Amino acid sequence: MHKILVTGGCGYIGSHTIVDLIDNGFDVISADNLSNSSEEVLDGIETITGRRVKNYAIDLCDLEATEAMFREHSDLVGVIHFAALKHVGESVEQPIRYFRNNLNSLINVLDCMVRYEVPNIIFSSSCSVYGNASELPVTENTPLEEAESPYARTKQMGEHIIQDFSRRHPNHNNILLRYFNPAGAHESAKIGESPTTPASNLVPVITEAAIGKRKELVVFGDDYDTRDGSCIRDYIHVMDLANAHTKALQYVIAGKQEGPVEIFNLGIGEGVTVLEALNSFMAVTGEDLPYRVGPRRPGDVVAIYANYKKAADQLGWQPERDVNDIMRTSWAWEKVRSNAVKEA
Ligand code: NAD
Ligand code: WQD
Q1: Does ligand 2 come within 6 angstroms of the Cβ of 274?
Q2: CA contacts within 13 A on the Cβ side of 274
Q3: Which of 1, 5, 56, 328 to pair with 301, CA 20 to 30 A apart?
Q4: Where's the NAD(P)-binding domain (predicted)?
Q5: In sequence order, what are the beta bridge partners of 178?
Q6: Domains of the chain listed by start with CATH number
Q7: 308-331: per-residue pLDDT in tens?
Q8: pTM, full prediction
Q9: ipTM for the complex shown
């Protein structure tokens, strides 16, 4: 059984990916300092998969602790590196914290992979590396524009670090996955997005407004040059995204990688407007959603969505879910989460 280290394994995408990895026969350990998560998610993973995953609650910026973990697991075949701080607005307020955390953790992980001969890394990148993209849909060859935030710059820099690393270590396989807008939860509603910091992404804000955790949702602008005036994004279900990581690992382990660094866009290839997303939520759940239209949010791009043909052709990956599945599963998870809080 291939053993994989998932960094950020208690986080949102990491936890869903662990479920998909276990379902596909991988052995997994996690390293997560719980700065934006809790180990309760390991209970949910155990309920779904029947397996208890061990988490090392270490800060990956601590080289000694990171190395001790690698030393204990000399049989690792790969690392999926999710661990990072991810709030765009916060990164503008605290750029040094973002550079320190997101870059030092990556550098330490790469350093340990060399020392302990772990040959495969999958890195969480983001569509934010494209900035205000010059063409739609975005392909992996669309030029990267100026980063819109320190967060996005940590992703561009992370990609560059891995490019340079690969030139020195040609036997390593390096995959950069550029996620578009991940959302949704596992079908079982045993795991979902449960950050310890306040939600700011559209889908959790929708479910929180619908359940009454917040007074209303504000649509950030309806005067853009789009079909209904609101911004367009490519919302990808987190379980489809999770499965792309499994497929990427299977691809490198089978020796199919065509170059030292390969980049894949992960989206569903369709743009959805903010107002369409709200309508999908109301139609799928039958719930009311208190919302009003407000001003534009500074830094928002008007429209972005992916061309994912490369992932389909090379990884054999296809998204199977759409925005309605995202709303259905997010709502189921929000109800479970809110009840758990009420009962506590
Ligand atoms: P998340 O915050 O839920 O998960 C990240 C996890 O990493 C958290 O559990 C956190 O505690 C942990 N972590 C952070 N710094 C650490 C450190 N120094 N040492 C150990 N653990 C650390 O975020 P997510 O949504 O699951 O995102 C996972 C990855 O995907 C991140 O790299 C993020 O930048 C990237 N990404 C996310 C999105 C999105 O919208 N969710 C989109 C594109 C890319
Ligand atoms: C989606 C749309 C908002 C909240 C961010 C990062 C990106 C990636 C994904 C990490 C936009 C609108 C939102 C609300 C709204 N993350 N909106 N009211 O900004 O596309 O992408 O997350 O890598 O890098 O930038 O995602 O969910 O914040 O916004 O109208 O209360 O919903 O204006 O059009 P975004 P989002």
Answers
A1: yes
A2: 26
A3: 328
A4: 5-328
A5: 125, 265
A6: 3-184+235-267 (3.40.50.720)
A7: 999 999 999 999 999 999 999 999
A8: 0.98
A9: 0.98
